[in-house]
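PROTEIN DATA CARD
Card holder: TauD/TfdA-like domain-containing protein
Chain length: 299
Origin: marine metagenome
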Amino acid sequence: MSLEVITHANSKRIRQINIKEEDLDKLIFPFNKRNITSLEYKPFTRFTLAKSVDDIFSGKLSKTLSETLKDRNTGAVIIKPDIKNSKFDKDFLVKLSTALAHLVGSPNFDSMTGKYYARFYVKHLDSSDSYLRKAYTSMDLHTDGTYVKEKTDWLIMTKMEEVHVQGGESVLLHLDDWEHCKELCSNPVGKQDFVWGSPESKNINYKVEHPVFSEDESGKPIISYIDQFPEPKNMEQGLFLQKLSDALEESKKKVIFPSPVGSTIFLNNCFWLHGRNAFKKDVNLSRELLRIRGTFFTN
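Structure generated from the sequence above:
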């Protein structure tokens, strides 16, 4: 079976993989053999699921995902399965996202939910302690895993469902396209250790220290940053973070696009930042998302 890989309409750096209904049909039987509880309790079943997906494309899907995500020139994949038929329900999307993740690496434990993945809603009313669920506030550009000890090489975000939604477009920025990358990456303050905490909802009872900017094996800059969680130690760090935030949000190089239900954004977390535009107000607004974060296989 051929794998349809195209360049995304909004960026030459982003690859789009379209999965046809006829290919998804071949996954119904192997997916039905694994319920969600077994995936949560028995990690090896997730690899079985991933193998069943990769077999549909003769091993080309895992190869394409791994090569694209690790390539500094790309590092981003949008997967669009043809799920218009009701036979592809939310459990199917959880299993498909699980399989995609396990084709490239091992997920981190998500403390917010106590599982290898998180599912959460964005709704009209919200009393949470972070921007994650606040519909009418833009979620500024950031990377994931800034406040945990585990390394976060990549992340998956799958849109499970949405109703009465206007706005809320995905926002991405590649570090190498950012107009202020050289200026701020070379600033010595950005290479100091910053303290990173998190609100109660994240269920993390410790803080970590690391710089905003570091370098990969080839000497190119990588970033670990989110605006809500750093705790600047002094004026110098506070002003640097403000300058960084302003420079990111004012960038003309942001890639902004809507994502259909069922689609997955798969990003390299070291040089791609992601965010979300604010929604238009609607008392019936509801969007459900799934998130998986993890590390690449080492072999």
